[in-house]
Recover the amino acids of this structure.
């Protein structure tokens, strides 16, 4: 007498979060296509123009949205781990600090704060080290973009001190 293994098939429900992502992809594609529809054609005889690349991107997003929706409906996405909230809060706080301080303190200080708070979100607890390191790296980036490439980035007291 042989005892067979019983297989239990559990049908997973649709992944609602992935369906929301698919919907968001469709909305972004729709916005791109709407914007492309308002572009003037530079030359009527040309097959490719300024609307070609955004149209291809929008069509790619529509394809990804359909694929995501199908996988979500079948429940083929792997189970996700529980989201840890504190790291997300640290990163969002860093983005908020950068937006708030960008015009007041300049690029280097605002982006240095973003760097430090994001590092804190990823587990680096020593803000007294991360903030100066972030400011120095951001100042180097500002110098490259502003002085070498001649692009305009917001300058604050630190940037005015050197340039």
């Amino acid at each position: 007498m042989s005892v067979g293994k019983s297989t239990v098939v559990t049908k997973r429900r649709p992944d609602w979060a992935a369906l929301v992502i698919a919907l968001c992809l469709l909305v972004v594609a729709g916005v791109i296509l709407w914007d492309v529809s308002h572009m003037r054609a530079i030359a009527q005889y040309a097959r490719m123009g300024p609307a070609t690349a955004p149209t291809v991107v929008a069509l790619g997003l529509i394809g990804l949205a359909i694929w995501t929706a199908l996988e979500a409906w079948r429940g083929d996405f792997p189970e996700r781990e529980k989201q840890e909230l504190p790291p997300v809060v640290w990163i969002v706080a860093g983005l908020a600090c950068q937006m708030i301080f960008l015009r007041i303190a300049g690029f280097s200080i605002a982006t240095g704060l973003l760097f430090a708070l994001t590092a804190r979100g990823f587990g680096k607890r020593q803000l007294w080290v991360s903030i100066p390191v972030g400011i120095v790296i951001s100042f180097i980036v500002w110098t490259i973009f502003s002085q070498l490439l001649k692009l305009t980035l917001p300058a604050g007291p630190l940037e005015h001190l050197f340039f």
Remarks:
- The mean pLDDT is 88.
